[in-house]
Design goal:
The structure holds 2 protein chains of 2 kinds.
Chain A: H1 9-36, H2 40-44, H3 58-64, H4 67-98, H5 106-118, H6 123-133, H7 141-144, H8 151-163, H9 166-174, H10 179-190, H11 192-208, H12 211-216, H13 225-233, H14 239-242, H15 246-289
Helix pairs in contact in A: 1-15, 3-15, 4-8, 4-11, 5-8, 8-15, 9-10, 11-15, 13-15
Chain B: H1 2-7, H2 15-21, H3 23-27, H4 30-46, H5 69-75, H6 78-111, H7 115-126, H8 133-144, H9 149-156, H10 171-196, H11 200-208, H12 213-238, H13 245-251, H14 257-260, H15 263-273, H16 277-306
Helix pairs in contact in B: 5-16, 6-10, 6-12, 6-15, 7-10, 8-13, 10-12, 12-16, 15-16
The chains are: A mainly alpha, B mainly alpha.
C-alpha cells in the first residue's frame, strides 16, 4: 500500500506544518531570551530578532545581585506550596464521595458543584466578600483559599476515582480498613496521575497569579513575583529601584523586562517536561470517561 | 449489560437511614460544601448589592433598596454598550479562528506516525498554556513594539513602523493571535483523548472498504469526537461575553479602549478603581446571566440536534 508509506506527500506536508507550529510556539521565548542577553542599544535599533546582539549578562547581574527579587520569588514559592497542598487535599476529599454512585445525596451535591462552573458571583461581590466581609486582606489566605476548589478539578478527579476497580476497595474492607483507611491507603496511592495533574494546574495557577494579589495584598513585601513583574513591565519600577547604578540605568530599561520575564518563567519551563506526561494521562482519563 | 443494569436496583431504604449508614463518606463533604457555600454561593447572593445602594463596608445588607435603578443606568450608558459590543466582537472572532484551527491541528497531530516526534510537538504546543498572563502580555508588547521583530521585518520591507499596541484597529488581531498562540496545543488535548477512545476496528473496516486517509478522518475520526467537539463548543459559546479579562487588562490602554474595553474590564474600572460597587455589580450580574442563558440554550440546541450535551 503506497498510501501508508512514510514518505507520502501528505506526511511531508504534515511534518512541515508541525515544524511551523513548533517555530510559531517557541519564537516568543527565543526572542525574549535573545533580548535579555542583548545590549540596550541593539534592542532600540531593532537589531534583535533571533540571536542576542552585543552579548551581555548585565541585566542578570543587576537583578540577581538584588535580594528583593528573591524575596518576591520566595513569597511565590510559599503561596504555591501552601495553596497547592490545601487545594489538592480539599479537591480529593470532595471528589471521593462524589464518585460513589451508591450515595443518593450526590443527586443533589453534583449539580451543586456543577452549577458553579456556569455561573459565578462576579468580581465585585467576590472582592467585597474577601476584602471586607471576611477581612482576609493582606494575608496569605486571600491568595490560597478563594480558588482552592474548582468545579472543573472536582469533576476531573471524581471521574478518575470512579474508574478505579471496585474490587480493590472491597479487598481493603475485608482486610479491616475503614472508609478513611481505604481512601488514604488504597485510593490516593493509585491516583498519582490525577493528583499530579491537579497539583500542577493549581500550582501553575498560583505561581502565575498577579490579579488576586494586586487586589488583596497592600504591603509590597508580601507580593508574589508575578505582581512585581507586572510593575516592571508597566515601567512602574525604575531600573534604579531594582538596584542598577546610575551608569547602568540607561543601558537596561528594555532588557530588564525580558530578563525578569525569563527568570520568572524559568521554574515552570524547567519542571514542565517532567510533569507533562502525568497531566496528559490525568486529563485523558478524566476526560474520556467524563 | 442487562445483568449490570439489574444490579443497580433502586435503593428504597428511607433517606435518613441511608445517610446514617454512609455517614463516614458523607462527612468527607462537610468542609468542601461549607467552602462552596462561602466562596461560590455567597458571592452569588452578594449580587443583591446591584439592587441596593451599597457604600462600602463589610455588611452588604445595611443599605436601601433601589430596584433596577443601576440596570437602567447602564442601559443608557454608551461606555457599557461599547464594552458589550467589544466583548462580542473579540470573543466571536477568537472563537471563529481558534475553533477550526484547533480541530485541524488535532486531526493532523493524530496522523503523525512517529510517536517521539508527535510527543515533542505536543509538549512544545502545550507550553504557552502554562505561562503567566503577565509574561504573555509582556511578550506580546515586546514583539509588537516599535523596535520589536515585527517592525524590524516591516522596516526591511520598506514599510513604516507601526505602533501596534496603541492603535485600536490592531487590538482584535493582537488579541486573537496571542490567544491562538496560548491555547492551540492545549485545546487539542481533549480531542486527542477522544480520538484514542475510538474503536480501532472502525478504522480497519473502513480501510478494507478502501477508504483514503481523508475519508477515514471525515467518516470515522470526526464523528467519533463529535460529542467532545460539541461540549467544548457549548462551553465556548457560554463564555461569549467574558473575553479574557486578565489579558485585556494587561494589554489595553486608554488609547485602545475604543476596541479593547470589555464588560469585565469596565466592571473593574467602575467598581475596584472607581468605587461604584453597586453599579459595577449590576453590569457584572448582567454579564453572568447572559453567559448562563447562552450555555443553557447552546446545550439544549446541541442535545436536540446531535444528542450530546453537557448535562
Amino acid at each position: 500500500m503506497k498510501r501508508n508509506s512514510t514518505f507520502s506527500t501528505f506526511n511531508i506536508v504534515n511534518t512541515l506544518f508541525m515544524i511551523l507550529i513548533v517555530l510559531f510556539t517557541l519564537y516568543p521565548f527565543v526572542y525574549l531570551v535573545a533580548q535579555s542577553f542583548s545590549s540596550e542599544a541593539a534592542i532600540y535599533a531593532g537589531k534583535v530578532t533571533i540571536f542576542p546582539v552585543e552579548f551581555t549578562t548585565k541585566t542578570y547581574e543587576v537583578i540577581l545581585s538584588k535580594p528583593d527579587f528573591f524575596g518576591y520569588y520566595w513569597n511565590t514559592v510559599v503561596y504555591s506550596v501552601i495553596g497547592t497542598f490545601i487545594a489538592v487535599a480539599a479537591t480529593a476529599v470532595m471528589s471521593y464521595p462524589l464518585s460513589k454512585d451508591k450515595l443518593r445525596l450526590n443527586k443533589f451535591f453534583i449539580p451543586f458543584v456543577l452549577f458553579t462552573m456556569y455561573f459565578g458571583g462576579g468580581l465585585i461581590p467576590n472582592y467585597i466578600l474577601i476584602a471586607k466581609t471576611l477581612e482576609m486582606r493582606d494575608t496569605i489566605w486571600a491568595i490560597v483559599i478563594p480558588g482552592a476548589i474548582s468545579a472543573f478539578n472536582v469533576i476531573l478527579m471524581k471521574t478518575f476515582f470512579a474508574g478505579l476497580p471496585y474490587e480493590l476497595e472491597e479487598a481493603g474492607r475485608v482486610d479491616g480498613l475503614g472508609v478513611f483507611g481505604i481512601f488514604t491507603r488504597i485510593i490516593l496511592p493509585l491516583s498519582k496521575p490525577i493528583l499530579v495533574t491537579i497539583m500542577l494546574f493549581v500550582m501553575v495557577g498560583i505561581w502565575n497569579n498577579w490579579f488576586g494579589p494586586s487586589l488583596y495584598l497592600q504591603s509590597k513585601e508580601k507580593w508574589p513575583v508575578a505582581l512585581y513583574l507586572k510593575q516592571i513591565i508597566d515601567n512602574a519600577v525604575s531600573p534604579t529601584e531594582i538596584g542598577a547604578t546610575s551608569d547602568q540605568t540607561s543601558q537596561i530599561a528594555a532588557s530588564i523586562k525580558s530578563t525578569a520575564m525569563v527568570l520568572t518563567s524559568l521554574p515552570i519551563i524547567c519542571i514542565y517536561p517532567f510533569v507533562q506526561k502525568y497531566f496528559v494521562q490525568g486529563m485523558m482519563i478524566g476526560a474520556v470517561k467524563g | 449489560m442487562t445483568a449490570q443494569a439489574q444490579v443497580k436496583a433502586v435503593d428504597t431504604t428511607p433517606l435518613w437511614r441511608h445517610v446514617k449508614k454512609e455517614w463516614k463518606l458523607y462527612s468527607f463533604l462537610v468542609i468542601p460544601v461549607i467552602y462552596f457555600i462561602i466562596f461560590k454561593y455567597a458571592p452569588m447572593i452578594g449580587n443583591i448589592i446591584a439592587f441596593r445602594k451599597y457604600r462600602g463596608g463589610p455588611n452588604i445588607f445595611g443599605s436601601e433598596w433601589v430596584g433596577f435603578t443601576y440596570f437602567e443606568m447602564f442601559m443608557k450608558d454608551p461606555t457599557f454598550w461599547r464594552a458589550f459590543f467589544n466583548d462580542l466582537t473579540l470573543s466571536v472572532s477568537y472563537l471563529v479562528v481558534k475553533f477550526p484551527v484547533t480541530l485541524i491541528f488535532a486531526l493532523l497531530l493524530n496522523e503523525l506516525r512517529n510517536i517521539k516526534w508527535k510527543k515533542f510537538v505536543q509538549t512544545v504546543s502545550y507550553l504557552p498554556h502554562f505561562i503567566s498572563m503577565v509574561i504573555v502580555a509582556g511578550m506580546v508588547k515586546e514583539i509588537v513594539s516599535l523596535n520589536g521583530p515585527i517592525n524590524s521585518v516591516l522596516a526591511s520591507l520598506g514599510v513604516d513602523k507601526i505602533s501596534f499596541i496603541s492603535l485600536p484597529e490592531w487590538f482584535p488581531a493582537i488579541y486573537v493571535t496571542s490567544g491562538v498562540w496560548q491555547s492551540l496545543g492545549w485545546g487539542t488535548i481533549l480531542y486527542l483523548a477522544a480520538m484514542t477512545g475510538i474503536n480501532t476496528s472502525l478504522y480497519e473496516a473502513a480501510k478494507i472498504d478502501g477508504a483514503s486517509r481523508l475519508r477515514l478522518a471525515m467518516h470515522v475520526t470526526i464523528p467519533g469526537i463529535l460529542p467532545t467537539v460539541m461540549v467544548l463548543l457549548i462551553l465556548d459559546i457560554g463564555s461569549i461575553l467574558g473575553s479574557n479579562f486578565e489579558k485585556i487588562l494587561l494589554l489595553y490602554n486608554p488609547l485602545t479602549y475604543e476596541t479593547a474595553d470589555v464588560i469585565s474590564t469596565y466592571v473593574y474600572r467602575m467598581g475596584i478603581t472607581g468605587g461604584n460597587f453597586s453599579y459595577a455589580t449590576a453590569v457584572g450580574l448582567f454579564e453572568g446571566i447572559i453567559g448562563l442563558i447562552l450555555v443553557t440554550t447552546a446545550n439544549a440546541v446541541s442535545k436536540r440536534t446531535t444528542k450530546s450535551g453537557l448535562w
